[in-house]
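Hi R.,

Here are the chain sequences for the assembly we discussed:
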Amino acid sequence: MSYKHIGKDFTPPDIFGKVTGKAKYAEDFTADGMAYARLLVSPMPHARVKKLDLAPALAMDGVFGVITADDLPPVEAPNGGILTNEPVFIGDPILAVAAVDEKTAEDAIGRIDIELEPLPFTVNPTDSLRPAGPNARREGNIYAGSPPQVGELHWRQDEVERFLAGGQPSAEAPIEWQYGDLEASFDNAAVILTESFVTTGYAHMSMEPRSVMSYWENGKCFVYGSTQSQSFIIPFLAPMVGVAPEDLVYVSEYCGGGFGSKIFPYPIMALPAHFAKKLGRPVMLRITREEEYYIGSARVGFQGWIKAGFAADGRVSAVDLYIVQDLGPKRAGGDASSAGGAVSILYQPEALRLRSVPVLTNTTPRGAQRGPGQNQIAAIFEPLMDKAAQELGLDRVAIRRINAPDSNAKLNADQGPVTSAYMAEALELGAKRWNWAEKVKRSGRRRGSKVTGIGVGQGYHAAGTSGFDGLVRITPDGKIHLHSGVGNLGTYSYASTTRAAAEALKCDWSQCEIVHGRSAAHLPWSSYQAGSVTIFTHTRANHVAALDAVAKLKEVAAAALGGQAEDYDIDGQRVFRRGRTSRALSYGEAAAKAIEMGGKHSGVEVPEDIHEVTKRAVAGIAGTGLVGVAKDTLPKRGTVPGFAIGFVEIELDVETGKHEIIDYLAVGECGTVVHPLGLANQLRGGGVWGFGMATTERHVYDPQNGLPANVGFYQCKPPTYLDVPSRMDWAAADIPDPDNPVGARGIGEPAMGCAVAAVMCALSDALGGHLFNRTPVTLDVILSHIAGLPPTSGPLAINTF
Amino acid sequence: MEIVRYREDVWGREVLLGVSWDLLWLVIAATFIVIMVHAAIMLARKSGPRPSADGERLSRHAAQDRWFHWITAAAFFVLLATGVLPIVGVKFPWLTAHWVAGIVLTAAIVFHIVRSLFWKDLAAIWIKPSDLAELAGGAAAPLPGKYSLAQKGMHLAMAVLVLVAVGTGIAMLVQIDTPWWARSNFLSEAALGWMFLLHGLSTLALIGFAALHLYFTARPEKQFYLRAMVKGWVSRSELAAHHDPARWTPDAAASGDAAQASPGLGADAR
Amino acid sequence: MTAYDVMPDIELYQPATVEDATELAARLKGSAWLLAGGQDTYGWLKDRAKTVEAMIDLKGIDALKGIRETPGGVEIGALTTLTEIVRHPLIGERYPLLREAAAVVASPQIRNMGTLGGNLCQDTRCWYYRRGLSCYRAGGNTCYADSPAGMNREHALFGASRCVAVSPSDTAIALSALEATMIATSRRGSREIPADDFFVGPDVDIVNMTALAADEVLASVRLPDRWANAEFHFEKVADRNVWDFALVSIAAALRMRDGHIENARFACGGVACVPYRLPAVERAVVGKPRSESTGEQAAHLASRGAKPLNHNQFKVPLMENLVRRALRG
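And here is the predicted structure of the full complex:
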């Protein structure tokens, strides 16, 4: 299908601000009389505040006040409170001081007399599961159930030992689901692989720390924050700051990275609003890099066991997956089930069982991080595919093609359908584009101390939802205002999804203006900007809003020029009568006419089914133009899958343990390409992060005292420009999804998962098929393996290797 | 001037770090003043004729005890130099020499304790109420037995201080790597602070007492004690002048250089 | 306490001459911070892990900048940036070892700001110490890294004495291999300190990494002719290619004669608190060709005496491999 905008590059409007430095992020805002707040965070991994003397701080000149947990609404464990009297990790915020400047606030914090009573703590889930293991919270050590709540679970010592030794786990797992006949399917397997594995958690470390500024004005609460989402924030943040949604003004025009940690409003985000109310003045809370490490979330860690059966033809017959999750001390989870889901769709096993134990630890709180669960298991399962391929004498791409999901694929416990899937085509495209058949011959090639490793990896994430609203407005000056309630997390999908509206309106892009970034700009109800959902979800919402606008254009034209709406068509910013194209209104004229007509045409009346947020947005613009607004009720017949495949060639230096990525190709299987540059950046950026997850990024904790080792950006070791190839190739299957009006599906998360998997496979390939079964594979791990050194940490060590 | 130094432990709680080394200068100054005052008093006092070293030689210190004393003294000075010089700014690799000397000192002390308990007259060094009469001074004061009250006091003080220093030193040794073990977390940070404090305080006191010990050893009227610690004997006249033969009746020293003689265990056990 | 990141009040002095700087250093001894490129300064001060009352900014002193030829070799002002060293033709021609070392320091941005003096005098990267804990190196009475379950992957194999931190400087090992001398200046005069004496281990001084006295300013570094145009090998192995510190690094200078090694100096980084010289290797390779087999013979000598901690055993084979590579040429 030929499109005017879809599949074409364009320049998103926020680029200029970003490259010139004029963009205003949360901490760039100021307000008259603004106080600066600083946090006092816990120096202990688990403790109770025994004594707190604020008087010396409050007596200081320039100090406006202190806020503690006692000033804030209580929160039920293990949900993250804004502040706490019972910190559960080093860095847990206990109180905040506001002063005339940050230095004074910090000096005041230094004068506060605080005494903490240490409580038992753990940085290792399996330690907590031991018979008398420490509980990360006083309430317990696991977070499970329906609805999930904190409980206590300790295994028998022999169960712990068996799990650590790699034996089939038999201990109680609060989460369990299964489909198919596991036993029968394993019986049918020609090859059965059983492995223990670890994927350690690591910080999101968003470039922009989650600074927030808030003030109150005439009953309205203004919040300048940093979130991935925009409109989606409102109904959740409003109760957190104690205000009605309509009285919350939320600004997040730019977001310097969230990676899953800024999908929803996070607890600290509400602090300045509460503090501002208490002090009667605006409050800015700038979050430091170290605090961002503490409260900026991290990936859930896995200590797991997997058994995978493969039939003689290469089909995955059965998978038994057991995962102990390292959840940190607060509400998190879902990663293990997502991992099971990813296995169910990517390899289409006949039978699958997932068991999981979500354990709390006194490490930083966890949350969704790009491909939460899917990417951890990709790092572990894909090298198993290679091993099975080797044992069955199959090519590594071939075994993936044999198992590749198509549009009849089923997934998850309920074995539900997908909207479409074309992984066989994508694998074929990638293999051809990358010249797999030739490059795989380089596997194991030795050049001096360097060995070539070839890897292919696959990533998956559900990538689309529905039911959100779209809003477009045509003003009498002929401008088309595309209102986007999608957050600006850096993927530009807030902008690229509006291209679907422009497409339906058949207008020039130069006539379009994207409205976004602040709730006061009248933004529609939109999905969270995460989970790879935006492209699918909001091309639909924009499409339906544009269709509504088109219908109204025709009605307005018919009213102005005679005839029926059906007699009219649009193009070139004109609505014209078919066959008599001179009978036409420009979009500007139509907008003026719509204002004159009022009612639904100018947004004075709105559809019943749209969200309250959208209704308020439309009310704000009613009477200013022709308003197209609609809720997405288009059919969606299953899970919307997003897939990506990574092909990588590395050279591993066996003398240093260092590897170099020689060549990388990422292939997106994500429906129609909407914005090629955006997709390319998603695939490349995901690739870079995947390399980091595979080889450098991790949590490091001292188990003796719960201290985190890598609170700084450089210590967290995301790859830099000079750690990755200067050129990274990409391609897309570009096969439309039938349930999206422009054929699009999401891609964000799989773009990383496939890279983790590909690098893990390539490292294994370079070392003759050795399975590391853990992320990250740091160079010391490689060197120790080559030198035959014993492991430095205990079995399934997590956070401590 | 601070006496004790504090630091924050791994969780930000205040714990002891150790003694303040400002006290070192205080101890040195105080000891110096005590010595000067004593020297001035002694200078003003008319000193009588010194007893002769000639004549019959009586055994005061057995060879084992003299060896013990000098090994202890050597270890002590190595410990002092390696412990204190870095604090006053003389930089050199001191730690190994320090703990090796500490082990030597510990071994010597163990030897001394065992020997004192089972082969020596412990009472000879033990302060008894009757000794307090020596405090009267002048002609009224009775002469002491083998050891004067001052000597017994010095021994007791040194014994207590050295035991504290050695005890805390051993605890600290467990917290560092040695050829025989890797360090442990056997002491909490707070307890470790106490060890450092006691080690430092005992060191400071030992500096003072050692200086006094040296001073008295060097005093003309007491130099025969130094010879006794080197060679093992005192003369009959020295005994008569400084000790009450009724309270201490030593055996005759072996002929020749007593340091080379073998008086046998128990030679001075009276 | 954690998470500061706020600059405290500090008196700033900006001398324009070395004399003024040394005068200030003498007057403010112990309470002042000498500031060069500032790349290992603000983190300490903002996190209040180190507290100073004054800062003496040396960047305005032109006499401390620049690279000049001297009768005995080349002298580099301590305030010369690493980028200038990388780009300077004299260094590139005669001492490419130093150029290679300077070229892999941190990141391009940091090299533009960071100076040679700062790179040499920077403090260790032990994460416990950097956290502001009162460990031995911070004047305390314990080491967290060397505790029974301490996380010490980056720490020392050699020369540990209570503290197991390592020197983070990339240029230090190059200068050690080049037999450089450091010129320390103070109001008392100037003194020349050989590189091997300039860096100090915890056995001698547990709270300082260099022999500089509190009133001394590192003025320059002298590279002797002795090693100009020798054969060199430099390699740094870190987790990342950029903005990372060496897990193990090596600098080797080899003077060849008739295809055989006449004289050699090896220094390793990341394995001790100082640039760790390899005298056994240096002796063993004299008279041998620069070859795979020489490397094979010498490699095991490099790690002799290593005392690995819980998590840094991998440094032993890594170090041996780097010696092999240095001799392979």
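Chain C touches chain A through 43 residues (CB under 8 Å). The CA atoms of residues 261 and 286 of chain C lie 5 Å apart.

Let me know if anything looks off.

Best,
T.
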